[in-house]
């Protein structure tokens, strides 16, 4: 179960990075909701990834 949690956190980080890259090319640089949303999703993904790694080690 820990690997699934870890992979979902990694997927969230990658999706947020793709959103940031797409927002740069589409000219959405001045839309703070997109930038902060993607940044927040990266932080949450990192936390979920670390939590999944610790849970995997405990099993």
Could you please describe the fold and organization of this structure?
- With 59 residues, the chain is mainly alpha-helical.
- The chain has two helices and no strands.
- The protein has helices spanning 2-25, 32-58.
- The longest helix is centred in the last third of the chain and has 27 residues, at 32-58.
- The radius of gyration is 14 Å and the shape is elongated.
- The model has no long low-confidence stretch (mean pLDDT 93).
What's the gist of this structure?
The chain is 86% helix and 0% strand. The protein is mostly helical and 59 residues long.
Key structural traits:
2 helices, mainly alpha, 86% helix, 59 residues
SSE map:
Layout: H1 2-25, H2 32-58
Helix pairs in contact: 1-2
**What would you call the structural class?**
mainly alpha
- How much helix is in the residues? over 70%
Low-pLDDT runs of 5+ residues are none
The shape, in one word, is elongated
- Topology as a string of helices (H) and strands (E): HH
- Describe the largest sheet: none
Rg (CA only): 14 Å
Regarding quaternary structure, what we see is single chain
Mean of residue pLDDT values: 93
Measured distance between first and last alpha carbons? 9 Å
């Amino acid at each position: 179960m820990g690997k699934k949690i870890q992979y979902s956190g990694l997927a969230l980080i990658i999706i947020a990075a793709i959103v940031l890259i797409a927002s740069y090319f589409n000219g959405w640089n001045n839309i703070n909701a997109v930038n902060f949303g993607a940044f927040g999703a990266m932080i949450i993904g990192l936390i979920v990834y670390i939590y999944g790694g610790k849970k995997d080690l405990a099993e």
